[in-house]
Write a structure and sequence with these properties.
The chain has twelve helices and eleven strands. By secondary structure, the protein is of the alpha/beta class.
Amino acid sequence: MDAAHGPVLVVGATGKTGRAVCAALVAAGVPVRSAVRAGREPSAPAGTTPVVVDMATGHGLAAALDGARAAYHLAPNMHPDEVGIAARVATAAADGGLERLVFHSVLHPDDARMPHHLRKAEAEAVLRERLGARLTVLRPAAYHQNLVAQAMAGMLRVPYSLDAPFTNVDLADVAQVAAAALGGAHAGMALDLAGPELLTTRQLAEQAATALGQEVGAVRISLQEWRAGPGAVFDDQPRADLTAMFAAYDDSGLTGDPTMLPGLLGHPALTWVTCLSQSTPAWRRG
């Protein structure tokens, strides 16, 4: 297949970010290959073709990239071998002559307070060394979607200060930028993707209450409660990474420049209230 008209490979396709990127590409008529673990083929996003890839070894990467026009690389969240995975992706992409690769990084990857951010920074460097201007890096803020379910349930429960500031971004906006980059835009660039509003968790709850027409509270839970609840699903290393992240959030939140994203999108970035409105079931919207 002519690479210029070939498919896009999405690594990390079965997570919420990968699914959003796949959906944006499929909606644009782009053929998509979803990288999945062996036995997980049925979990591939709708409209995509599953391809088996073992990111721990790199087995299957060369075949998955063969004939591809571009690839989107998103490592498993908090993965301890983020840099090793990036090295395997970089080697396969370079050896296969891939024209462009988009790497999903994080806002402020050089923040030394957060080990998983530093692994993103190292992964960026590895990919850039091998691919140069064929690499585009996306550095998104935290997603609106991370808190939607809690807002609809009536309580935002977080293990950090309720008054820490955030410039949360909508996942659909990130996916739109990703699809454009995979189509050839923004080559060689590193793009900070921060949302349009600087809001604390307390303010997020207040806006959610108005938007949803119901009470929405906000409470800070202890680290002990978090570890026994949401944190219980993580192994020791990602749990430690997240604990360090919460401490950094206590200190300064997670904020970025809100002026870049609208220019990339060609329209205003989605707000928290708009995200809630789009996520609310039709029967509640009346």
